[in-house]
Amino acid sequence: MSFLLGSGAGFSGDRTDAAGPVVAELIRRGSPSALIFETLGERTLAAAHRAMRDNPDAGYEPLLDELMRPILADCLDNDIAVLSNLGAANPLGACRRVAAIAEELGYREARIARVQGDDILDRLTRLDLAPWETESSQLPDPRTLISANVYLGAAPLAEALADQAQIVISGRVADPALFLAPLVHHFGWAWDDWDRLAAGMMAGHLGECGAQVTGGYFSDPGYKDVPGMAWLGYPIIEVEADGHLIITKPPGTGGQVTEQTVKEQLLYEVHDPGHYLTPDVVVDLSAATVTQCGPDRVAVTGIRGKPAPDRLKTTVCYDGGYQSEAEISYAGPNALARARQAAAVLRARLAFRAPADLRSRLDIIGAISVFDDDESTLGGAGQAPADGDYRLRLAVEHGQRRWVERATQELLALYCAGPAGGGGVRRSFQRRVCTASYLVRREDVDAFATRLTPQTEHLDRSHA
């Protein structure tokens, strides 16, 4: 019998009603199954750590209630395991919140487990680190560090399921590991059965971004048309004991599952298809085949695996000062010239009103923006109409907030001290978070799972 993996979310901020049709279909099919909420990105995690510093009870996925409450009773009633990284910086807080929701719904005895071991900030400087994706081999100034989290594999998640957890909450784990863990637990795959582990990891890769494999982030009207974008069905992946995969979606939902959608997602963010690094296995897609085997049903075969890497990726987030942006619109006759004049005035003002190390960028949205660079190399060469609807955007960053405030105030002043007809000004500020990645030795990481009980809560609180 197939094991069914359902995706309920693909990122923090994803649709919160997507899991309902997935759970309904898992119940209708009656096969062993799990529902996965993948809600964690690198900057999401840094923001969560910031939130937790301000409020020790925060730091987990802000949409936890909206994601979990609608499906929790159905999952508990039908033995559908729920796994998620929505714990972010505070998995214990997330566990407590899920327990509270479960109790409110009448499931006081729900078995909830927490995965630990990803947060290594307190011992980061003592570890043997190898630079991975960073501009410097040196760690950032320790005074600026916000977080350091290891991408854990599936083992502690599977451990939690073996301990009969119904809901497993983690912080930073590799996204597809959330999908691999229930397969390892259900089928009893060995941790050196590389081909099956690779198939399971890619099942997770295909499901981790939610609707991206069913038409989201794929649609391009007139070239790649996708029906029902407002009601996209999130993926369900059928997995056999031998690692055979079929990607599908709930019947009656929007979107589509085709060879094209699956191929795009299969290669999404894969740096080397022949040597894709994950914590549990190195995946080789060089012999993989993707085959349409029915309406909204696509099979993926030929995935191979190689031994897992000796080191695990660790993302370090650190304070990068402040960033701000501000915008003003110019529309109607000669609007492009007025927008360009406003940009020139702003550059001239910033030259003596802001420090030389202020980083800034100006775009004229409607003429050219995304394709230009920070130096506005293409800004003067655009062929946009003279009359139109344009919006001047200023983005700045600096270590001190007062300078980003000063810069964006200069844009605000264009209202009366700039070209004619400027309007619709807005500006915003936020702390800037920078990231760098290092590789940590596998043996230096101690990952494990604990069930949420009064005793474990006491232990966790004593370490806080």
Concise summary:
This protein is of the alpha+beta class and 464 residues long. It is built from 12 helices and 19 strands.
Structure commentary:
The protein is of the alpha+beta class. The protein is built from twelve helices and 19 strands. The strands form three sheets. Strands 12-13-9-8-1-2-3-7-4-19 form a ten-stranded mixed sheet, sandwiched between helices. Strands 5, 6, 15, 16, 17 and 18 form a six-stranded antiparallel sheet that branches. The protein has a three-stranded antiparallel sheet with strand order 10-11-14, with helices on one face. α1 (19-29) runs parallel beside α3 (64-77) and α5 crosses α6 (177-187). The longest helix has 19 residues, at 335-353. The two termini are 44 Å apart.
Mean pLDDT score = 94
Distance between the ends: 44 Å
Helical percentage: 25-40%
* Unreliable segments of 5+ consecutive residues: 458-464
Strand content: 25-35%
The total count of strands amounts to 19
Assembly level: single chain
Keywords:
alpha+beta, single chain, 10-stranded mixed sheet, 12 helices, 464 residues
